[in-house]
Amino acid sequence: MDSKLYILKEGSLGYISDTPGQEPANWNPFRQISNVAGASGINAWDAQTERWAIFGNQSGLYIFAAGAPTPIQLEIPDIWNAINWETGGQSVVIRNDVANRRIFIAAPMSTPKQWCPDFASNDNPTSPNVT
Questions:
Q1: Three-state SS across the chain?
Q2: In this structure, are strands 31-34 and 102-106 parallel, antiparallel, or unpaired?
Q3: pLDDT, tens digit, for every residue of 93-117?
Q4: Dihedral through CA 17, CA 19, CA 20, CA 21, nearest 10?
Q5: Which residue has the higher pLDDT, 122 or 22?
Q6: CA 75 to CA 61: how far, in whole Å?
Q7: Do residues 94 and 55 lie in contact, with contact meaning Cβ atoms separated by under 8 Å?
Q8: Do the strands 93-97 and 102-106 form a parallel or antiparallel pair, or are they unpaired?
Q9: How far is CA 131 from the centre of its chain?
Q10: Do 112 and 122 meet the contact criterion of CB atoms below 8 Å apart?
Q11: Lowest mean pLDDT: which of 9-13, 18-22, 78-82, 119-123?
């Protein structure tokens, strides 16, 4: 994106950029954009376009368009906080359905909860059991 290689870590986001005539190991130094926004695991992000991406970790769900990451889960803090981050956070899956303008999140969450009362009882999930 924007001729930069963005790097998501569990609790941070940054980039390196191309240095002409150099191998990637010798590119410009890593520049941190955020020390809060990141991806909790390898599947906790999606980018269906070259213009923006979505990703999430325990601190929130973010949209990123080469500026500062912006939190986008502000209407669902109780649901986000109910994710089992301790033992299953690395298994969270985030996908952007551009055609239907939806973001899907599969996450481990103890069930049942008020927003999913008919789910089977699971006190300590370690992989996604709620979408």
A1: CCCEEEEEECCEEEEEECCCCCCHHHCCCCEEEECCCCCCCCCCEECCCCCCEEEEECCEEEEECCCCCEECCCCCHHHHHCECHHHHHHHCEEEEECCCCEEEEEECECECECCECCCCCECCCCCCCEC
A2: unpaired
A3: 999 998 898 999 999 999 999 988 9
A4: -130
A5: 122
A6: 11
A7: yes
A8: antiparallel
A9: 15
A10: no
A11: 18-22
Question: Which pair of tokens denotes residue 23?
Answer: 């191998």
C-alpha torsion sign, points 15, 20, 25, 28: negative
Residue with tokens 């669902």: 76
Alpha-carbon radius of gyration of the chain: 17
Q: How many residues can be counted in the chain?
A: 131
Sign of CA dihedral 86, 90, 91, 92: positive
